[in-house]
TrEMBL record:
Protein name as catalogued: Thioesterase/thiol ester dehydrase-isomerase
Residue ranges, compositional bias (Polar residues): 54-69
Taxonomic placement: Eukaryota, Fungi, Dikarya, Ascomycota, Pezizomycotina
Originating species: Trematosphaeria pertusa
Domain of life according to the entry: Eukaryota
Annotated region (Disordered), positions in chain: 50-77
Keywords assigned by UniProt, alphabetized: Isomerase, Membrane, Transmembrane, Transmembrane helix
PANTHER family, sorted: THIOESTERASE FAMILY PROTEIN (AFU_ORTHOLOGUE AFUA_1G10800), UPF0644 PROTEIN PB2B4.06
CDD domains for the chain: PaaI_thioesterase
UniProt key word Signal: no
């Protein structure tokens, strides 16, 4: 029999028994009517309880749901297309501009430093020694009689040319970045040049990290110092104040000991158009006023030629 039909049949049978029960009890005098009443009350409570449990178990989830008392918010209306398109374009442009500005900031500062380099006089104050050793080297350079005499001579222009190179670009410069530092070229070289490019003097400290043999400065470094110093000597004599090395001849005269200040002296011997011939030497720093004679370490001669595109180079090369 199907479960639904069986349940209905059972309920009808139970009801019939309920109706007939009083008549059966009346025909049985031995049964206490009070006990019958108690039994009937217990049966009624149990039957009703089971019906309530079955009705709760069989109730659908929708019957237990609490009726909704709040209304859904109205759907959000989109802004018109003629407002959304300009707004999107504006936000895109703002984001792009901000990102480009942040990325280009270092390049802009470098370009500004190239276009507006410090003056020769300003470069003399840009370097600040950070150790006692550097302070001592600075004092030896600027308190020496040779330096004082050159500073007082109006014919010479004093400067530290490597400090005109933007800081971001110094790592790409050999003598102004790679070789500049403790135990190397300890302080930026100090140079004295004439406006017509005829003579040139520079002072630089060479440290122990520049040695080829223990205690002796590498000959390649001395050649580099001569190459750069002779070039700077003739720059003012050329139309665009810049040139490249066409030839360089070096003669080594004496070992250069590390841990001292050396002096480079150069003079331009001839200028023809874009060509300039220069000779010079590296020597030890002594007090010639006391009769001391410098030791010539290296001598050199060079030919420099101004490139045809020199007009665009002079802003980059200092």
């Amino acid at each position: 029999m199907h479960s639904v039909a069986r349940s209905a049949f059972c309920r009808r049978v139970a009801l019939a028994r309920w109706i007939v029960a009083p008549f059966r009890e009346a025909s049985r005098p031995s049964i206490n009517t009070t006990e019958v009443a108690v039994f009937r009350a217990q049966f009624t409570r149990g039957h009703i309880g089971r019906r309530e449990q079955s009705s709760i178990a069989g109730a659908s989830p929708t019957s237990e749901a609490t009726p909704r008392t709040t209304l859904d918010p109205p759907p959000r209306q989109k802004k018109p297309l003629y407002i959304r398109i300009p707004l999107t374009i504006a936000l895109t442009l703002i984001t792009f501009t901000f990102g480009f500005t942040m990325a280009a900031a270092p390049a802009l500062s470098t370009a500004q430093a190239l276009l507006q380099p410090p003056s020769d006089e300003e470069t003399l104050t840009l370097f600040t020694p950070t150790t006692e050793e550097l302070v001592t080297i600075e004092q030896q350079i600027f308190e020496h009689p040779l330096t004082k005499s050159l500073l007082e001579d109006e014919k010479y222009i004093a400067s530290r040319p490597h400090l005109k190179i933007p800081e971001q670009m110094r790592t790409q410069n050999l003598t102004g970045g790679t070789l500049l530092g403790p135990d190397k070229i300890a302080v930026p070289p100090v140079q004295f040049s004439t406006a017509d490019g005829t003579t040139f003097v520079s002072l630089q400290y060479v440290g122990s990290a520049l040695c080829g043999h223990p205690g002796i400065v590498h000959g390649g470094l001395l050649a580099t110092l001569l190459d750069e110093g002779l070039a700077r000597c003739c720059f003012p004599a050329l139309p665009n104040k810049v040139a490249v090395t066409a030839s360089l001849k070096i003669d080594y005269k004496a070992p250069c000991m590390a841990g001292q200040i050396v002096v480079l002296k150069a003079e331009t011997t001839k200028v023809e158009g874009r060509k300039a011939w220069v000779k010079g030497r590296l020597e030890t720093l002594v007090d010639e006023e006391k009769g001391e004679k410098p030791v010539v370490l290296t001598e050199g001669e060079a030919l420099f030629i101004e490139p045809r595109q020199a007009a665009s180079m002079k802003r980059v090369v200092t």
